[in-house]
Every structure is written in C-alpha cells, then in structure tokens.
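[job 0412] stage=complex_fold ligand=glutamine status=START
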Amino acid sequence: MASTAKRLDGIPTTIFTEMSALAMQTGAINLGQGFPDVDGPGSVVERAVTALRAGENQYAPGIGTQPLREAIAAHQARHYGIDLDPATDVVVTTGATEGIAAALLAFVDPGDEVVVLEPYYDSYLAMIAFAGGVRRPVTLRAPGFRLDPDELKAAITDRTKLLLINTPHNPTGSVLTRDELQAIADVANEHDLLVVTDEVYEHLVFDDHEHIPLATLPGMFERTVTLSSAGKMFSFTGWKIGWATGPAELVRAVLGAKQWLSFSSGTPLQAAVAHALDEEPGFYDDLTRSLQGRRDQLCAGLAELDVDVRVPEGTYFVTTDVRRLGWPDGDAFCRALPERAGVVAIPAQAFYDDLEAGRHLVRWAFCKEPDVITAGIDRLVAADLHA
Ligand code: PMP
Ligand code: GLN
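[job 0412] stage=complex_fold status=DONE, emitting structure tokens
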C-alpha cells in the first residue's frame, strides 16, 4: 500500500469534519461547525440561477471575473476608504481557505517562521506546515482573549517572515482594538514583515465594537494581504467564493500560487457574489443585528449551566470554560456531549499549541435559528453535564 507523504504526518482530520459527522451520527443539534442554517439573500440565489442559465458556466479568469473584482474594490473603498485597482489589487479565491493556502504558499519558504495568533483557525496549521514554515503562536489568553504586545514582540526572530492575523477572531470572538492592531503594525514595520490578515467576519461585529482592517494602519497597506469571503458576509458558506486584496505585487504572488491550486473559482457564483456586494449591502447589517440577538440568547442559556461564558465581540462563536462542571479537558467534554445532551460543540484545544492555555475551552456557534438555539439550550439545561 502506498504510504502517505510526510507532510500529512501530524495533520489531523479537521475538527469541523469530525464534530459535524458526530452530530449526523447521533442526531445531535450542531452548535459546532460555523455555518448558518438560513441562506443569504434570495436575489443573490436568483442571480446565480440566471448566470447558470445564461451560459456563464466555463472557466472564469484565474484572477476572478471583472464585475466581482470591481465589486470587491468598491466594497473596500465604501467601508474602509481603501483604494484598490480591480485589475491588479484583487484576486478571487475558492473561499478564504484557498486564500490562506495561496498566501502561505506564495510567501513562506521552508524554515521561515510564521507568527500566528493562538487559538488559530485550523487551516493555518495545515498550510503553514504544507509550505514548510514553522509556526510561532502568540496566545490570546483566556478569559479576556486580548493580544499582549510583549508576547508578540517576543515571538519575532530573525527567521520571522510573516504575521498571520485574524480579526474578528475565530474562535474567541475578540475584535482586535486599534491599540492591538497598532502593536501588530509596529512590529511589522520595525521588522519589515509581510502580513496576511483573515477578516472573513469583518461585518459580524456587535455592540459598539468596530472592525478595523489592518491594512488601513499607517505603513501597513504595502505589506498586507487581506482575506475575506462571501461565505460569512452573505451566508453562503457552501459557495466557497472569497478574495484576497492588497498591493499589486503581493496580489500577483497570491495569484501565482492560486493558479496552481484551483486555477479559477466558480463562474456563476462570482456573478452572484458581485451582485450581492453591489446590491445587498444591507444584508450583513441585518445579519449582524440578528446574530447579536442570537449571541445573547446562547450566552444567556450557557450562563444557566455551570460554565464561564466569555461574551464575544464579533463572529459566530462564543467560548466557555467548562472546568467548573468538573471537566479539565474540553475535548473529553465535547465527545461526551452528544450522548449526554444531544448537542455538539467544538473543543477549542484543537486550535492551540499551548494545551494548557486551551484545554478547558469549548466553542459554541450561534449562527443558528433561534428555535434551534432554544432547543440546544433546553437539552443542555435538562442534561447532567457534570463529569
Ligand atoms: N478563516 C476563518 C477565521 C474562518 O472561520 C473560516 C471559516 N469560514 C475561513 C477562514 C474559511 O472561509 P471559507 O469558508 O470562505 O473558505
Ligand atoms: N469556519 C467554520 C468554523 O470555524 C467552519 C469552516 C470549516 O468547516 N472548515 O466553524
């Protein structure tokens, strides 16, 4: 039997696949993987249908269709005052997942160190490894999950090539403040580092918190690739249309890698996402308002259990500390949960190198319909969750 390549050694099956399979097998309510249970705007679906019927079914240009690149550039200008040339400063990717892969393959040589916020989105771990890079996590520590600028500075060595940032941050729900972003910018500028910033939850920010794109800080545009995705912005996670933006030279490098991953991304869906960006900007504001209510609903329900709840500032997710229930290990808790309560959640330790920092943390998704959240809470409250 053929043996697998060494690059797969130590790369686990993604926890999202594992836990969603567990939800299917057990019939549990899935508060694990972050996908909404209601699709995005009908007009956007109709635009995709029209594109399918009108013969927009052959390869798109690798860089993305012109209408979508123009719509992405217009979005960045409208929301953040970022001036992009759609011809050179935007590349469409097959979800942000491909943007992450292409950016890391484009910029990281074997042995290069990548400083990454921990807990980290799990594809970062795999793609840093595939690129031959070495990850240097900087931990956002519970319970506040803030960035410590001294820990960031201490992670930099003469082999550091790139900072991989994520704000709003999955899984903690932290939205990096201007001061935290400035600390990142200071380090990047001082050490002349490239930055890849994953901002897929850019619009999903609650209360008076504000998403500030890292690329808008002084000196940062020239060294930053920004990633986003229609999956989170418009509740079409299954469409896998994302994008990378930044200065032409960096975008060209991302495209240089992307062309050998997928060559190009789904043509009719690009037409639909261009329509979404241009014509449905109200969607993500409404989504954020409704998500904030569902965040409050889930947090209030979790607070009825014997767990510490950290109310998130953005994203789809709330993180809890389950130690008071007698579980030092969130993974064991999550694996027992379907049988105990008929609910699935995600053990956040999958996103840590520093197990001590994350062992006890469990992530719950609230991008679900209110009655699904209610049913989940009812099950949790009725169950005996103590170890
Ligand atoms: N980055 C983060 C932080 C995510 O949570 C996700 C999941 N949506 C992705 C990237 C992947 O995005 P996509 O589904 O567009 O590939
Ligand atoms: N981003 C989603 C989450 O964090 C899941 C995406 C995936 O399953 N790869 O739950």
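The chain has a mean pLDDT of 97.
[job 0412] exit 0
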